[in-house]
Specification:
Strand content: 35-45%
Order of helices and strands: HHHEEEEEEEEE
Oligomer: single chain
Largest sheet: 6 strands, antiparallel
Number of helices: 3
Radius of gyration: 29 Å
Number of strands: 9
Helix content: 10-25%
Structural class: alpha+beta
Distance between the termini: 102 Å
CATH class of the largest domain: Mainly Beta
């Protein structure tokens, strides 16, 4: 007799709480799916891709006369793997490419080391320019602007 009364008096949770619990479960499932598809979860569990290239262009120095200018780019690898520089692109303030140098093949930047990447810029005259270092993995690292007088 007591068992029948106990089963008849059982109460469920309020419909409001049930709805809140279902919404919370849906939100948590959505976050997990988003993290997995964006690679965050894979990286956290060790299944992510290799480290990305990170290079900081510290400074650009030029010397020579107009029409025969040599450029030294001081770059530091701030990532976790060696980066291989394969080119240097010189642009003016309008973004026009003035010169590309691909004779820098094999210039390696080891982790936390500062190196000098040198190139010849025969097409430069007085003005403001930027240098972009390119890598074999497709990375592009832009310098701050420098002025040739």
């Amino acid at each position: 007799m007591k068992i029948k009364r106990f089963l008849n008096n059982s109460k469920a949770i309020s419909p409001i709480f049930a709805t809140l619990i279902l919404i919370a479960i849906a939100v948590i499932a959505g976050v997990v799916v988003y993290m997995f598809t964006s690679g965050t979860l894979a990286t956290m569990t060790g299944g992510g891709t290799a480290a990305q290239e990170k290079v900081s262009v510290q400074a650009v120095q030029y010397f020579g006369t107009s029409g025969n200018i040599y450029i030294n780019v001081y770059a530091q690898n701030t990532g976790t793997s060696t980066v291989t520089v394969n080119g240097m692109i010189i642009k003016d303030t309008s973004g026009n490419t003035l010169q590309s140098a691909t004779s820098l093949l094999g210039t390696s930047l080891t982790v936390n080391n500062l190196i000098t990447v040198s190139g010849n810029a025969t097409a430069l005259s007085a003005g403001s320019y930027t240098v972009t270092l390119t890598t074999t993995k497709g990375g592009n690292f832009l310098s701050s602007s420098f002025v040739v007088s």
